[in-house]
């Protein structure tokens, strides 16, 4: 799947929002299929086999989270969620159900395109999977467990390295606190999210140009983190 | 227990009863005397004993004893030869007298104690019935007034007057309608949870009974005896204690009925409010999302510059309306006290970075300086709400400080507070105006004043206070404004350091 020929299914009940999202995506020469309710959305998803799914969480006929869970049973295509600002719990539920990222309403064209591109790139990267990764002035050699910044080796503690790997593995995807805690500290520690915050802060100190205004280790308030290249 | 209680009620005086005894005995004498020579004296004795028995049955113990003695005397005087004298010719008659007296007294004793017993059972039954009636009335009572009326009518049957003293909203005894001495006694009964006896100049003293219900004290019941002697009052004390416990349970039931009703009202009001807010927020956000998105899409098209500019303006204004709407809805939720806090231990630096990310376009015209104290501790807060606070403060700074002037963000600890301060180099607000800005929202009066600035600050302050912290503004006219958010430090959860565990 290359970005040039992306096929996107948009499930959204508001016709105006659907129209602007569609026109924005079509301006990129991408193919857009539409569905105005969850049931039709699932049918379309089955028949069209889209490369990417955009789902509004507030559908009239079914819970968007349930739709995502259903979709995940048979497809690994990235899912982008459209959600209202104040519903952090809904976003977390959607991410736990298998969504990859979310956009908070209202959103602009730029944000929408950036997320769609990031998700489709992420999907492509998963397919190639190389042990050598780099972002900013940092390069990571997963095979040799080596992290260098500007050519100089950076000493990471085992936990810091584990967290970095968890983030790199799912780069471009929104990860909830619980997911990261589980991946790094194990299932017994999912409530001790302060560990995660402290370690994230240390990673930023060691790997970000400006730790206070990070470009790679992004905080998603009330939800979790996202690593982006 | 008085044997003549049944008669006391019918107002048969003592004298009259003894008179009746005399008449009855004389009647028997008169009936038997003419036949004293033909009649066997034993039969006459029977008649006398019959009278004693009837007297015991009808007139009670005293008259019956009197009748027994009188019968023997009359029998001796009129019927036993020699007549009309107490002298006795035959010694056998002395035995007759003794037996007659003994049988009379025995009959009296048996009859009256049987009556006493019957009376006691009847009274007990009546008491039970009264308690049952009272309990039924109390159970059906729908208000305190009805409870009071039921208790008053019960007490009236007991020749008493009652007054109930209930609790104040602060769960203290309300004695505002009593005299000083009485109020002291009431308090005593209330705090000791024991019956307290008052003092009275005349008659038996009033009784103060604590109203102790299963879930706690409900008040004190004062009982003032009327037309009753002290002995009698003392005997009735157990029923008053029963009365007090029935009353306490009834009042507690009413209290919880009331609590349940209030809760129900609060819940339905809350449901209405939150569904209204949710609907409003959805219905406003949906058109705003399309408006903002379409304007943004339009601005990206190859259009003449003037039209592109108009599209950008529409987009920015839609964004501003959305921000205002979010603030208004948050304010409504905050004022209802229903904004749930998802507090977690976290670092200020994350909130700073997310806020700066959100406000990048707004803050583009201002150079930013960040001063984060080293080793800032974890603070417990709701990241989304504190981000809102910081965004509001930063937006204010950007709005009121001239373009190009620096904005400084500082995070540090001071005493037992974690502080987050935004300092601008703007003109500085007049201190008097500052006070007004905050006061506006404490009164919930959002209709006057400078809308844009005040609302954001009001929300920031409300969020800070919901966290147990504070938001202060200080300004030096001409030298800028500093807004400082202070959150309590608390004790962060402990962390097992990695080095102890698994050396790196």
Write up this protein.
The complex is a heterodimer of chains A (229) and B (504). With 229 residues, chain A is of the alpha/beta class. Chain A is built from eight helices and twelve strands. In chain A, a hairpin with a 2-residue loop joins β6 (132-135) and β7 (138-141). In chain A, α3 (64-72) runs parallel beside α4 (88-97). Chain A is globular. Chain B has four domains: 5-124, no CATH class; 141-259, Beta-Lactamase (2-Layer Sandwich); 272-336; 344-444 and 452-488, Heat Shock Protein 90. Chain B has a five-stranded mixed beta sheet. In chain B, strands 1-4-3-2 form a four-stranded antiparallel beta sheet. In chain B, strands 5-7 form a two-stranded antiparallel sheet. In chain B, α3 runs parallel beside α5 (92-140). The chains are: A alpha/beta (229), B alpha+beta (504). Chains A and B meet through α1, α5, α8 and β11 of A and α9, α10, β5, α11 and α13 of B. Chain A: Residues 130-229 bind DNA. Chain A: Residues 7-120 form the Response regulatory domain. Chain A: The modification 4-aspartylphosphate is found at residue 56. Chain A: Keywords: DNA-binding, Phosphoprotein.
Provide the β-strand percentage band of chain A. 15-25%
**CATH 2nd-level architecture of the largest domain in chain B:** 2-Layer Sandwich
Low-confidence stretches of chain A: none
| CA(first)-CA(last) distance of chain B | 95 Å
- Helicity of chain B, in percent? 55-70%
**Oligomeric state of the chains?**
heterodimer
Average pLDDT figure of chain B:
83
Strand content of chain B: 5-15%
Rg over CA atoms of chain B:
47 Å
Strand order of the largest sheet of chain A: 2-1-3-4-5
Shape of chain A: globular
What would you report as the Rg of chain A, rounded to the nearest angstrom?
A: 18 Å
Q: Please report the number of helical segments of chain A.
A: 8
Task: Please state how the strands of the largest beta sheet of chain B are arranged side by side.
Answer: 6-8-9-11-10
Order of helices and strands of chain A: EHEHEHEHEHEEEEHEHHEE
Poorly predicted regions of chain B are: 1-10, 443-451, 500-504
